[in-house]
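Review form for a predicted model. The reviewer records the input and the model, then writes brief findings.
Reviewer: anonymous (R2)
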Amino acid sequence: MRKFRFAFNILALTVFSLAISSVAQAQATRTWVSGVGDDANPCSRTAPCKTFAGAISKTAAGGEISVLDPGGFGAVTITKAITLDGDGTLAGILSATVNGIIINAGVNDRVVIRNLSINGTSGAQIGVNGIRYLAGKAVMVENCSIAGFSQKGIDVVLGAATGKLDVINTTFNATGDGVTVQSGLVNATLFNVRINNTSNAGLNLLSGTATISDSVVSNNASFGIIAQGGSTITVERTLIVGNGTGVNTSGTAVIRLSNTTINNNTTGILISAGTVATFQNNSIAPGQGAPSAPPLTQQ
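Model under review:
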């Protein structure tokens, strides 16, 4: 009986080890999705998966999901370091009534979203959020188009955590807000972005710091750029035009303007409280400056 138990335990341990080995082997560093793929596939280049959600469980932490050919690859929740890359083709996420991408990764995880069209259906704005950043060390969004979401294009809700958001060469259109940081000790950088036609604000910072540069913020219904609470936004080489209010601060927030053009907004600069500091190299059209106290701070 003892020999039988010993042999059984050895057999069970062997089976368990093989199962672990099989799972490890199933997670590749690079996986692939295709418009004609199947999530039952191993997500290899010759046998790609159909969706990002199907591929992510077969992709190792720190790996990359690449897109083989045009398609819509579905909403996805990311819980580890990973790259989604649609380079070279029309790669989309159509997420009507839901969030396009949820990032709820580990404290040391970096996530890259690159070359994707994230669409909640532009006309009706029936998607919820394009990207929700809930946890993770850093998120980069590069060469993307985000449109058709009733709440936010990118929504950052990190609680008390620290995070980094980089948004590069990306367009926002027909969203509630373009980019919103609701909570967290966040350092956000927006470079060469276009935030247009939102129903509220282009860039809305309630927490942390942000820099927006070489960008266009236009035709947003309520605010182009708004800093609230104790947040700070630096605006460089940016065109702010056709918004309800171009620039607004409240609380103890600070906005610093440099080489920036403010024109054709219903209200150019509104200082509810806090500070708008303008270097003397901005182009602020007549009637677009702060009309009442507290005045602009010249630097």
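Findings: The domain at 61-298 is CATH 2.160.20.10 (Pectate Lyase C-like).
Further findings: The chain has one domain: 61-298.
Recommendation: see findings above.
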